[in-house]
Automatic annotation (TrEMBL):
SUPFAM superfamilies on file: XseB-like
Quaternary structure annotation from Swiss-Prot or TrEMBL: Heterooligomer composed of large and small subunits.
HAMAP family reported for this sequence: Exonuc_7_S
Gene Ontology cellular component list: cytosol; exodeoxyribonuclease VII complex
Reactions it catalyzes: Exonucleolytic cleavage in either 5'- to 3'- or 3'- to 5'-direction to yield nucleoside 5'-phosphates
Group of enzyme by EC: hydrolase
Protein name (database record): Exodeoxyribonuclease 7 small subunit
Molecular function GO labels: exodeoxyribonuclease VII activity
Record InterPro entries: Exonuc_VII_S, Exonuc_VII_ssu_sf
């Protein structure tokens, strides 16, 4: 599971590493499952970060138009 202190950029970098490793196919089935699971968690983490940023931008934009 991604650490709470992990940044979006760190998570994306690790996700890229996981994806490249899986694409090479040089790992065992068990390791592939672990990597896939880690990748899914990283993907969720990134999605949540992006969603939070989008909400904040929407709120800031709405506040700006109300002025």
């Amino acid at each position: 599971m991604p650490k709470k202190t992990m940044t979006f950029e760190d998570a994306m970098l690790r996700l890229r590493e996981v994806t490249e490793t899986l694409e090479k196919g040089d790992v065992t089935l068990e390791e592939s499952v672990k990597l896939f699971s880690e990748g899914a968690e990283l993907s969720r983490f990134c999605y949540e970060k992006l969603n939070t940023a989008e909400q904040k931008i929407t709120e800031l934009s709405a506040a700006k138009t109300e002025e």
